[in-house]
Write a structure and sequence with these properties.
The chain contains 8 helices and 4 strands. It is of the alpha/beta class. A 4-stranded parallel sheet has the order 2-1-3-4, sandwiched between helices. β3, α4 and β4 form a beta-alpha-beta unit.
């Protein structure tokens, strides 16, 4: 399997994820890249320092996301929801490969996100049905008022579900001290471990 980690500049989070995954397994091929990365920048000093303290010596040169990299990858794991959305807007032909690292690592642990997507689908169906049924009954302004009134309970339920969702973002440590880099690295490492569990389960399911 080919895995591509993506962050903003490809000098902090995504190279840390690449290094941590490479350190734990030889069964996958790993690269990292950045949405706004240039070519040839080294890993940040903070990231290199905390990796070294884990016994991981990692040489790295940044690279931007390209169509060639996205075509190469079987799985594209971003460090934030915004990175995922940026890829989906710019390179929508590969969007079935895009997940945040935390989202993919937790996908067999929780059904909250699937429940929310189902709720979005259902409320959209109700909205269309209401508009079609009352198309000739109200002017545009009244239609919006009546539509909100009809869907008010569903909207409130969706807001509750959204507020209960865990954040799928890993915060950028850029410019932070060693403690901040260490916290980011440990968060990435925890999700890399979960990622490997998901990949192993998927592999066993395919047998």
């Amino acid at each position: 399997m080919n895995i591509l980690f993506v962050c903003t500049g490809n000098t902090c989070r995504s190279p840390m994820a690449e290094a941590l995954l490479k350190n734990r397994t030889g069964n996958v091929t790993v690269q990292s890249a950045g949405i706004f990365a240039g070519n040839g920048m080294p890993i940040s000093d903070g990231a290199k320092q905390v990796l070294n303290k884990q016994g991981i010596d990692f040489e790295h040169q940044s690279q931007p996301v390209t169509p060639e990299l996205l075509e190469w990858a079987d799985l594209v794991l971003t460090m934030s929801e915004q990175h995922k959305q940026s890829l989906a807007m710019q390179y929508d032909q590969w969007q079935d490969k895009y997940f945040t690292l935390k989202e993919y690592a937790a996908k067999d642990k929780s059904s909250d996100w699937e429940d929310l997507k189902q709720a979005y689908t259902e409320i959209e169906e109700k909205r269309i049905q209401f508009i079609n049924k009352h198309r000739n009954d109200y002017d545009e302004e009244t239609m919006q008022e009546k539509l909100y009134e009809a869907l008010k309970d569903d909207l409130e339920e969706i807001r509750k579900m959204e507020s209960n969702l865990p954040s799928f973002d890993i915060s950028d440590p850029f410019g932070g001290n060693e403690t901040i880099y260490h916290e980011t690295m440990k968060e990435i490492e925890k999700n890399v471990v979960l990622l490997l569990e998901v990949l192993e389960k998927n592999q066993n399911d395919d047998k």
